[in-house]
Design a protein that fits this description.
With 361 residues, the protein is of the alpha+beta class. It has 13 helices and 14 strands. The protein folds into three domains: 3-122, Rossmann fold (3-Layer(aba) Sandwich), CATH 3.40.50.20; 134-148 and 223-353, ATP-grasp fold, B domain (D-amino Acid Aminotransferase, Chain A, domain 1), CATH 3.30.470.20; 153-220, Dna Ligase, domain 1 (2-Layer Sandwich), CATH 3.30.1490. It has a five-stranded mixed sheet, with helices on both faces. Strands 12-11-10-13-14 form a five-stranded antiparallel sheet.
Amino acid sequence: MKIKLGLLYGGKSAEHRVSLQTALAVTKALDLTKFEVNPIYITDSGEWVRGGQLEGPAENVKALELSTAGNTISPVALNRELFPTQKTNEEQTIDVIFPLLHGPNGEDGTVQGLLELMNIPYVGNGVLSSSAGMDKVFMKNLFAVAGLKQAKYVSFIRKEWERKKEELSGEIEEKLGYPCFVKPANLGSSVGISKCRNREELVVACAEAFQFDRKVIVEEGIVGREIEIGILGNDDPECSVAGEIAPKKDFYDYTAKYEDGNTELIIPADITEEQYETLKVDAIRAFKAIDGAGLVRADFFLTEDGEFLINEVNTMPGFTPFSMFPLLWQNTGVSYPELIERLVGLALERHEEKQQIKHTF
């Protein structure tokens, strides 16, 4: 029997376009002899739109931008409204949702909480791990508790910056120095990130970052190589080979990731076996620090002294066939279609485990 899979994509987020690219790639990779695929599109204004069951891969991104005319649904009645002309029963409900959402309102635990309340299995990280993995400040606090080495950082909210701009600028200069990186605390895909070399650039960068979030994090600039590793699993996670990001620009920004391709991905990374073993230990420690499930990409700096510093984890990494996470697993022996199937299997496994929890006594 085919697995009824709901592809949830789009989203009210600055990473809406990235999500559409991911969804397009997944529709092309899914084996329709194994899956019945139901597209569920979230517009950039937050409306949920039901699509008809896919008979084949989507032709392009435009085909996935479903019309809201007569097709909007209430997310709190997701399973029922996907089959509005039929009498809903257990056989007609979705078996599992694959949230192909990046950024706030999708990767941050909000959608995961909704699916938990409806008791629908879903691919990937749960509420806590998703929200902790999205908020860079909380993520780094958890890493510190787990004993992971990382760059120094300062964080503040918009009102603090408006009231104490000079004081906070001085603290950043004293604690971090230049160059430093300014980032929205809750966003990915390098959106809103700036490299600063002086106070003037710092002020401009904070104004830019505050357009995307009410909280900003400023990190010290680290001289080192950018090394990434994929993690797959639930309670017994395993690691992929390591890869290296070699941007030809000043840093790995949104344009380099998704538009001009002006970046080299080196897989496997040129590191020693001993360094790889250290990297795996730290990556699993980071995965467990956020209580990860399904998939995570862990990003590190390898300093000139040969020390790994964790930068961040991404709980829904870029997922096109040309993105780092699938490429890492492809070079580990797991093809893109197989990776999707394994993630669906992990989702069903985690959901089954949750059903064993008692809610009465």
